[in-house]
Design a protein that fits this description.
Layout (H helix, E strand, L loop, with lengths): L1 E4 L5 H14 L11 H7 L6 E5 L2 E10 L9 E8 L8 H15 L4 E6 L4 H9 L3 E12 L2 E11 L6
Parallel strand pairs: 4-5
Antiparallel strand pairs: 1-2, 2-3, 3-4, 5-7, 6-7
Amino acid sequence: MEIRKFTAEDYQQIAAIYLEGIATGNATFQTDAPDWDAWDKSHLPDCRIAAFDRNIVAGWAALTPVSSRCVYAGVAEVSVYVAEAFRGKGLGKLLLSKLAEESEAIGLWTLQSGIFPENTGSIKIHEQCGFRIIGYREKIGKKDGLWRDNIIMERRSKTVGV
């Protein structure tokens, strides 16, 4: 397994994994994967990594800015998705750890995640990677007509912005 930056050429596989996450019902409020241009514009150009098993993308992680305000320039929201065939093998934790390392290399001081409470595996992985629960948002949005809560987690760098 090789972890490296992914590009537009890999996006078809990235989007397929995202769709698998959407299908679980507990990964995101999104209902479809955007096209490459929309995805590319909404994510930071750095810190786009994927785990490759030969030429097959097994999982990916990327960051989205939380705000365009300069005061939040060092804060980003995490996305981590693992292909169904590769789940349960520690790949999510590996990707999240590498993502956190790369985020510090570009000067980010806080990573945050909003996770459905039912997604206990994701919460556990985040905790193992130094994230802490800072609260929850009750009925923050509707998914399939039902109000859903979000657990809010963050990881504050011990080396950037101290």
